[in-house]
Amino acid sequence: MAFGLFKKKENKVSEVKTGFLNLKVKEVIRETEDAMSIHFEQPEGETLSYKSGQFLTVIVNVNGKEERRAYSLCSSPYTDAYPAVAVKRVEGGVVSNYLNDSISTGDTIKLMEPNGNFTTEFASENNRHIVLFGGGSGITPLMSIAKSTLDQEPNSKVTLVYANRNKESIIFNEAIKEMSADVRFDVVHVLEAITDEFECHEGYLSQEIIGNVLKGVDVSNAEFFICGPTPMMDLTLSSLSALGVPDNQVRKESFVSAADSAKEDNANDGELVAREITVIYDGDEYKYTVEPDETILEKGLDEDVDLPFSCQSGLCTACRGKCLSGKVKMDEDEGLSEAEINEGYVLPCVSHPLTDDVVIEIG
Ligand SMILES: Cc1cc2nc3c(=O)[nH]c(=O)nc-3n(C[C@H](O)[C@H](O)[C@H](O)COP(=O)(O)OP(=O)(O)OC[C@H]3O[C@@H](n4cnc5c(N)ncnc54)[C@H](O)[C@@H]3O)c2cc1C
Ligand code: FES
Fold it and tell me: Are residues 207 and 269 in the same domain?
């Protein structure tokens, strides 16, 4: 079996979609004390086209300011009649708390079309083991991948390793229980604290737990997907590597970025100086000057150029453009594959011009 497409950094260049849609909220379900799922009606006369593992960008107005955030689809395009996302509160977070507190059935939410590369192609002839490592809200894209695999690939198996604070914070606990009725699905819960009887590992996810999980996996025929808080993802990546899992069978999706901490450094980075750049978007050409502490996207938006974006953290690729000339520095390139980087693609939301001849084409 070939694994050429599994490693994120070796992905094919993906199609970037930047269209907008307005979807009506069909139902809101409180999943845990601090997480809810939002189920949308289908667009009028159509079925939303998306791949398991992709995300929607929610665009909402909070306190008079337009905010955009990415939320992975937890529904499967094969088994769920309606697309859905799940949102977990982040302490002090603007949008996650707004959605948890304010969204109800019948509301209409502005969204950007599904996007993202954290996905896999399903085929009925596949006979593989999909191993999913999730932590907290990182379960969302994994749920979609799990449901689609079980539905589309009768000979494939799914193992989910899911780490949470306690039983009460397990998002989709009931749905996961129901999926366990399928002999091809296995779940390993890891809980920091156990309050009552519950089959799980107590404590934090560890290399030992991952090693035990791998005892039931034919690694040569497996694909691994990781999504969760940064320490949990780092631990899983290093454990899989130490346990001999080849990098190109492992894919990951981050919800938080390292780009924020780079911002302060850039202001004092002698390499970065104010430079005029050219951005070509939708056939129009824009010229503006980017200061060392600004990103190419940020300045474009300040200049009223209606550029596409979502996470503004270099994770989602919604802002992706191709650098036609010159050089840029990216604070974060997590969202791009190696192929995309080699082809000159950049993420303007975390990019700064390094030369005076930067031309970026977006869309
Ligand atoms: C591709 C992608 C898919 C995503 N899918 C989901 C999803 O399915 N469900 C979901 O709940 N979230 C998801 N997120 C995260 C989501 O987009 C927001 O970042 C999150 O809801 C926080 O937004 P906020 O406006 O509440 O916080 P902000 O106001 O943006 O941030 C407040 C503070 O919290 C920190 N912070 C931001 N996000 C997190 C986080 N996830 N964990 C810990 N600290 C954080 C920030 O650094 C900041 O200090 C996804 C992110 C990406 C890039
Ligand atoms: S807006 Fe998400 S990568 Fe730039």
Answer: no
Residues 109 and 143 in one domain: no
To test ligand 2's pocket by mutation, which of 66, 309, 322 has the most ligand atoms within 8 angstroms of CB? 309
Query: Domain check: are 245 and 124 in the same one?
Result: yes
Residue 330 makes CB contacts below 8 A (sequence gap 6+) with: 314, 346, 347, 350, 351
Whether residue 5 is contained in a domain is answered as no
Atom of ligand 1 nearest to the CA of 313: 53
Ligand positioned closest to the Cα atom of 309 = 2
257 lines ligand 1 (CB under 6 A): no
- Is 12 inside any structural domain? no
Does 93 sit in the ligand 1 pocket, CB within 6 Å?
A: yes
CATH number of the domain that residue 80 is part of:
2.40.30.10
Taking the centre of ligand 1 as the mean of its atom positions, its distance from the CA of residue 136, in whole angstroms, is: 12
Pairing mode of beta strands 157-164, 129-135: parallel
Look at residue 26 and tell me if it is in a domain. Answer: yes
| Whether the Cβ atoms of residue 234 and residue 228 lie closer than 8 Å to each other | no
Residue 255 C-alpha to ligand 1 middle, in angstroms?
6
Q: Give the domain extent around 31.
A: 17-115
Residues 178 and 291 in one domain: no
Q: Based on the structure, what is the number of domains in the chain? A: 3
Instruction: Say which ligand is closest to the CA of 318.
Output: 2
Whether the CB of 296 sits within 6 Å of ligand 2:
no
Residue 267: how many CB atoms within 10 A of its CB? 11
Do 247 and 315 have their domain in common? no
pLDDT tens for each residue of 92-142: 999 999 999 999 999 999 999 999 889 999 999 999 999 999 999 999 999
Q: Which of 75, 32, 36, 25 is CA-nearest to residue 53?
A: 75
Could you tell me the pTM of the whole model? 0.89
- Distance CA(334)–CA(256), nearest Å, equals 10
